[in-house]
Amino acid sequence: MHLRCVPGKYLKRNGINSILFVRKESIPTIVIYTLTKFGGGAREYKVKFDRSMGKFYCDCLFWNRLGIPCTHMFYVMKQEDVPKIPDRMVLKRWGKNIKS
Ligand SMILES: [Zn+2]
C-alpha cells in the first residue's frame, strides 16, 4: 500500500499534525525516533524503524492492538522517505476500507 493512499482524514483524526519531534538516533540499520505529542503531556514514544527488515515498532502499541500503523509510524515513514507501508503492517480488512 502506498503512503499516499492513506486518507488525510485518517491521519488528521489521529493527529499526525500534532506530532512533535524530540530526537533521532541511528544505529546501523535501525533508526530510533523519539516523538511526543503537541498538547499531549510529556509522554514520549519511541519508534524503531529497522531499515534492513522494513519493520516498525512503536511504544504506543497501537499497531499491536489494532493492526493499523499509528501516526508515530506514519511520521517516521514520511521522514525516512518510506514510499510504501510494509504489507505486513496493514490488515487486509483495513486496506480494503480505504480503497475508493
Ligand atoms: Zn505509536
Automatic annotation (TrEMBL):
PROSITE patterns: ZF_SWIM. Residues 45-81 form the SWIM-type domain. Transmembrane segments: none annotated. The keyword Nucleus applies. Coiled coil: none annotated. The keyword ATP-binding does not apply. It comes from the Eukaryota. It is found in: Nucleus. InterPro entries: FHY3/FAR1, Znf_PMZ, Znf_SWIM. Its main location: nucleus. Keywords: Metal-binding, Nucleus, Zinc, Zinc-finger. Belongs to the FHY3/FAR1 family. Putative transcription activator involved in regulating light control of development. This is Protein FAR1-RELATED SEQUENCE. The lineage of its organism: Eukaryota, Viridiplantae, Streptophyta, Embryophyta, Tracheophyta.
